[in-house]
Design goal:
- The structure holds two protein chains of two kinds.
- Chain A is of the alpha+beta class.
- Chain A folds into three domains: 23-201 and 222-251, no CATH class; 265-365, no CATH class; 387-733, 3-Layer(aba) Sandwich (Beta-lactamase), CATH 3.40.710.10.
- In chain A, helix 13 (387-397) packs antiparallel against helix 25 and helix 19 (510-524) crosses helix 20.
- By secondary structure, chain B is mostly helical.
- The chains are: A alpha+beta, B mainly alpha.
- Strand 1 (18-21) of chain A pairs antiparallel with strand 1 (89-92) of chain B, so a sheet runs across the interface.
């Protein structure tokens, strides 16, 4: 048959075809479908934008409620960018919807434009959707880590963990989208391309599309792995450049001049610099023959308020700008302040290490001056506040889960207050009789217990490690370390045990004593970290060794010794070991908390340091018992102690090197607390406690928190101590003015 | 256009051009269910487009455009199956009681033609459908959006492809 015959047969065979339909039902159906179609379009248009619009206030509220750093709000830029991008994209492509009553070719071309635009959007989803959210999130994670006091490298490492999670989630989204491109959009595009190709003239075989890369017939088949890898590498490089940029801008102010200095610190006697060279202080007269007065005058003229800083930290820039660029070494005309013999000329190397030392010293000074000033400003006009008012205020200001304090003067309770929850968001309120984990305050208890053993003749302050463990393998440098050195952090012991020791969880009793013994012997098999007796270095290991020595000398466990020698004679009935425990599930005792990305997370009843370091920090007790314990030390300092002789207390309270005595820090009078204060604090990072006694006013102050935010808890605690010292001072003044 | 007017016009046109809709739907689907779904989709598109109908084109041309455009964009997977719905259209070949040898022959040929059309590329299938329905080159050009001369060139090729396919199917035994 010929085509014309097909045509005849077709018409003959189909001409009598009749379509039956129910007009009303059909119309209802088309109208319903029309409504659905409109709704679908509306939902599509408002879905993403709507979600983003809800996220914006949610983000602000979360940031405010959790006191998150400013970097949290960076993500909002990503959200706004997402909204704007979607709106602009919709608007630009709004009028390009293909009409079904267009000629087939035009309709197909419009469909192709649409499909290619969809492909473009999905292929570039990383740039317009994923990265604008992910980058600020990463910056926030890094900032959150930095705000905990981490330095840059560990902050970057830790922040990369949640970032990795976000990255994996995004990778999943990316793969989903690319799958959509591969499985649905690309076949559709090929179909349209061939349809268009078969409809257009052979002479004008070009197909126009909105996305030129895709318009070639064979240029786009699937996402090539090579392209994916290159795109990933480019993204990583951009990320590295971004982070590097932040790092550089955060740390360097002006990099165009070398940061070198010939001295390690500068102090000022009016306009005359006194510089530290090789650990000695010198008056400085000239640098490379230029009178220092001229240099100082130039600095004052050029840099205004910052003239001292510029002289100390940017000497290369200063001298270069004066037209006397320094070489690797400079000639300094100086006079030593220690041995004033004569002025000498020194060739001194300009090094970046010196410059760093100048900067570090300046920062330290700036920080302590600033801190002191802030402290003074705060306390200057602060009247004495009753604890009942101060504690809730400080708890809220510092966003602590709970805060409690007790003040005892001459053995009499003069004030106590508690505020907050035993467990965050539990609604169960803390009570003044609750038990608190004391962390390193335990150290003074261990030292007190050992002092009792010394008085009983079971040990001596001069007992050495070598003599205590005669049959063990101990490094020679350890052998002559004494008990007293261990209790004053001058033994040279490292700060902490290795991670593997810290991970062990032996139960208290013989098992723990054995593990403790093994752990300390293992440390002492190697060289001490510092030369014993030469410097102060705070050490949990040192106190653990002292505890192990007491166990070795008596054959008893550390906890039994502490109970018998300290808890029982002082009737500290609430005292125990590890975090306080509730007997049932009614939350009878508080729980410690950590902060994770602004959230307070209860640590449970078992989270603590390994009991191996018990002698350095695992005791718990109530505030009342803590005050009783500190009052005994206060009385001991005044020669009225019951547990130990006045001489022994003197020994326990006298600093060795630095300001550290046996489990107590001695702090001289300051503007805020004009008395000698003996104090110690402690935290296992889930709790915080501080105890202080002021012999002159017979005052004991104890502050506790079930929140491991050490910086904030510490700030609150010292405000309370100051406030309590003020009340003592007020009382003293009142007494002086009313001698009756 | 008022709703009532729109409804009246739509119903009129449907009486007249309904068969074209069904033919296009059948040409681009393989099963009766898909054919129903596509036909319904074409009618929905037509209803939606009715307010924008400009009288530059004839109703026939307009219906074909919508039918072909919808068929080209139609994918089974895109829409959930309308399970709850009654078929809105029923097709009758109106051949009951008139089974002359010619008519049987024609029906067989039509079946063969549909089979052949299913095997043609989509654009060729469209041309063949329009040709079989005896549309002029001018109408075909308007529907497809290409020049009349181009219609001639492409239609010749499509007719040849159709003939080849019909020959092949004639050789298939049974």
């Amino acid at each position: 048959m010929s085509p014309d015959e097909f045509q005849q047969a077709w018409q003959a065979g189909t001409s009598k075809t009749r379509i039956n339909f129910d007009a009303d039902t059909l119309l209802k159906e088309v109208q319903r479908s029309q409504r659905e179609f409109r709704t679908a379009i509306l939902i599509r248009d408002y879905r993403e934008v709507g979600v983003a619009l809800v996220m914006l206030p949610a983000w602000v509220i979360m940031g405010y409620a959790l006191s998150l750093p400013w970097t949290w709000y960076l993500v909002m830029i990503g959200i706004v960018w997402g909204i704007v991008f979607i709106l602009v994209d919709r608007w630009r492509h709004k009028h390009k919807l293909p009409g079904p009553n267009e000629p087939l070719l035009i309709s197909a071309k419009e469909s192709l434009t649409q499909v290619e635009h969809q492909i473009w959007l999905l292929r570039n989803i990383v740039w317009w959707y994923l990265l604008p959210y992910a980058l600020p999130m990463f910056v926030f994670f890094v900032d959150a880590c930095r705000s905990t006091g981490m330095s840059w490298p560990p902050a970057l490492v830790v922040a990369s963990l949640p970032s990795l999670f976000v990255a994996l989630l995004y990778a999943f989204l990316y793969v989903l989208n690319q799958r959509e491109v591969r499985k649905r959009l690309e076949p559709r595009r090929q179909e349209l391309l061939s349809l268009i190709a078969s409809l257009t003239d052979e002479t004008t075989g070009e197909v126009s599309g909105a996305y030129p890369i895709l318009t070639g017939k064979s240029s786009y088949k699937s996402i090539s792995p090579r392209r994916t890898i290159i795109a990933t590498l480019v993204a990583l490089i951009l990320l590295a450049i971004g982070i590097g940029g932040i790092f550089v801008f955060a740390n360097l102010d002006d990099d165009s001049y070398e940061k070198l200095a010939p001295f390690t610190d500068v102090r000022w006697a009016e306009d005359a610099p006194v510089v530290e060279i090789d650990g000695e202080w010198h008056l400085l007269f000239s640098i490379d023959g230029t009178d220092v007065k001229d240099i100082v005058a130039f600095c004052q003229r050029t840099y205004g308020d910052k003239w001292q800083k510029r002289f100390g930290e940017d000497l290369v820039q200063v001298l270069t700008e004066m037209g006397q660029k320094p070489r690797d070494t400079v000639k300094l005309d100086v006079l030593s302040t220690a041995t004033p013999v004569a002025r000498t000329t020194k060739d001194v190397a300009m090094t970046s290490a010196n410059r760093r030392a100048v900067r570090a010293a300046a920062e330290k000074r700036e920080f302590s001056e600033q801190q002191l000033e802030e402290f003074r400003a705060k306390s200057r006009n602060e009247p004495f506040v009753p604890l009942a008012k101060l504690i809730p205020t400080l708890r809220q200001e510092n966003k602590l889960v709970g805060l409690a304090a007790m003040v005892v003067v001459d053995g009499k309770l003069v004030g106590s207050a508690v505020d907050g929850d035993r467990k965050a968001r539990s609604g169960v309120q803390l009570s003044i009789g609750d038990q608190w984990h004391l962390g390193s305050i335990t150290k003074s208890i261990t030292a007190t217990m050992i002092a009792r053993l010394v008085e009983a003749g079971k040990m001596q302050w001069t007992d050495t490690v070598g003599a205590c463990f005669p049959n063990e393998v101990i490094h020679d440098d350890w052998k002559l370390v004494t008990l007293r050195q261990l209790l004053t952090h001058t033994s040279g012991a490292p700060a902490n045990f290795s991670v593997s020791v810290r991970r062990k969880k032996p139960a208290l009793g013989p098992e723990c004593t054995q593990a403790r013994r093994e752990a300390v012997l293992n440390v002492m098999a190697g060289k001490p970290e510092h030369a014993p007796g030469t410097e102060f270095a705070y050490s949990n290991v040192g106190f653990t060794i002292a505890g192990a020595m007491a166990e070795q000398a008596t054959g008893e466990t550390w906890e039994d010794l502490v109970k018998r020698e300290v808890f029982e004679p002082l009737a500290l009935e609430s005292a125990g070991f590890g975090p306080p425990k509730s007997l049932d599930k009614k939350l009878e005792q508080p729980q410690g908390h950590t902060t994770a990305f602004g959230w307070k997370v209860a640590a449970g009843e078992d989270a603590d340091n390994t009991f191996i370091i018990g002698p350095a920090g695992i005791v718990h007790m109530t505030l009342e018992d803590l005050c009783t314990y500190a009052t005994e030390h206060l009385r001991g300092e005044l020669g009225q102690g019951t547990l130990l002789s006045a001489e022994t207390y003197k020994l326990l309270h006298t600093p060795e090197l630095d300001d550290y005595a046996c489990g107590w820090v001695k702090k001289g009078p300051t503007a805020n607390i004009p008395y000698d204060v003996y104090w110690h604090n402690g935290s296992n990072t889930m709790w915080y406690a501080l105890v202080a006694f002021i012999p002159e006013t017979k005052t004991v102050v104890a502050v506790t928190s079930n929140d491991g935010d050490i910086a904030r808890a510490e700030a609150a605690a010292w405000r309370i101590v100051q406030n309590s010292a003020r009340s003592s001072k007020d009382a003293e003044q009142r007494q002086t003015s009313n001698p009756s | 256009m008022r709703d009532e007017d729109q409804k009246a016009l739509f119903m009129n046109w449907l009486n007249e051009h309904g068969p074209s809709v069904m033919k296009v739907a059948r040409a681009y689907t393989l099963t009766a269910e898909d054919c129903q779904d596509l036909a319904q989709e074409i009618l929905l598109q037509a209803w939606r487009s009715l307010p924008t109908f400009e009288h530059r084109a004839s109703a026939a041309t307009w219906f074909y455009r919508i039918a072909l455009n919808t068929a080209m964009n139609w994918h089974r997977k895109d829409k959930p199956r309308r399970l709850t719905q009654q078929p809105l259209l029923e097709v009758h070949s109106a051949t009951v009681g008139s089974n002359s040898a010619d008519q049987v022959q024609h029906r067989d040929t039509v079946e063969q033609l549909y089979k052949a059309i299913h095997q043609l590329p989509k654009a060729d299938a469209a041309l063949v459908l329009l040709y079989l329905d005896d549309l002029s080159y001018r109408e075909m050009a308007e529907i497809l959006g290409i020049s009349e001369s181009n219609v001639g060139v492409k239609l010749n090729r499509a007719k040849k492809a159709l003939s080849d396919l019909m020959k092949e199917s004639a050789h298939v035994p049974g």
